[in-house]
Design a protein that fits this description.
With 281 residues, the protein is mainly α. Helices cover 62% and strands 0% of the residues. The protein is globular and about 50 Å long.
């Protein structure tokens, strides 16, 4: 894939890959898992999303059923990558040993490897993800994805590695947004022009808002409707921090009915903050 096409897809891929709700628990049976695996192999986007969501809802009990497919050298890489994403969304330590085995596999495509790294990061293990940020990486698309993931997962320890890519002419915009979201105000001037770019606007808004800049309140309100739940959650948090009571109605709607539990929780906490309440962990 040409790097220009790859970079255009970075944000879109992330929006797809994190938007399935990760709540609830369904009973696990082998036939049910096989039906979902077959759906993933159909290459139909709607079937793919539904299958991922269903597997996540099955919870920790589905992990043993996924192991053969994740490690099966004959299985399509896109299917294996989707299953790795599922393992990252399941909030269970049972996922980690399988993810570590997947990381150790040889001759894997970069799209699979980065998804394993992101999934491990979701479980609090960031070494694999940071390895994509070490200077000298040939695949710039993977570096950009790693930077975005580090920001999504609030891995501030990766910031020094991210900064090394700020001036890269191909991925500097992605990297600067990630750096700002992690608290690096030194990248602000690189991010501000992106507020005028419809592709980057919402991401730039939450990045600039991290500095306490109230001039991004309007784009932050738009960001509450972004397809990426990490951005919706950060926008709600930022608007509460900036005391934008005009956004309370939209944030209340997210708190009640957003499909992603992470967004609902962030919105609920934002409303508490707006009302002067005390936040507890």
């Amino acid at each position: 894939m040409p790097i220009a096409d790859g970079l255009k897809s970075v944000i879109a891929v992330f929006m797809m890959a994190v938007s399935v709700p990760a709540s609830g628990q369904d009973a696990v049976t082998a036939p049910d898992v096989e039906i979902r695996l077959a759906a993933l192999e159909n290459n139909n986007p709607d079937d793919d999303t539904a299958a991922r969501s269903s597997l996540v809802k099955m919870g920790a009990g589905v992990v043993p059923y996924l192991k053969p497919a994740v490690l099966d050298a004959q299985k399509d890489w896109e299917v294996r990558t989707a299953l790795v994403w599922v393992l990252g969304e399941i909030a269970s330590p049972d996922s980690r040993p399988l993810l570590k085995k997947a990381w150790e596999l040889k001759d894997t495509p970069g799209s699979f490897k980065i998804q394993v790294a992101i999934a491990l990061g979701s479980h609090g293990e960031f070494d694999a993800l940071r390895s994509f940020l070490v200077p000298g990486q040939a695949d710039k698309v993977l570096v950009a994805k790693a930077a975005i993931a580090a920001a999504n997962l609030k891995d501030k320890a990766s910031l020094s590695l991210i900064r090394a890519h700020l001036r890269d002419p191909e991925i500097g915009s992605f990297v600067a947004i990630a750096a700002c979201r992690l608290g690096d105000e030194g990248a602000l001037e690189q991010v501000r022009p992106l507020l005028k770019d419809p592709i980057f606007r919402d991401y730039a808004a939450v990045a600039v808002a991290a500095s306490g800049d109230r001039t991004v309140i309007l784009p932050l309100r738009f960001a509450l409707e972004n397809g990426d739940p990490f951005i919706r959650a950060e926008a709600a948090t930022a608007l509460a921090r900036l005391k934008d009571h005009g956004a309370a109605e939209k944030i209340s709607a997210l708190a009640k009915s957003d499909p992603d539990p992470r967004v609902r929780k962030a919105a609920q906490r934002a409303l508490i903050r707006m009302r002067g309440g005390r936040l507890t962990r």
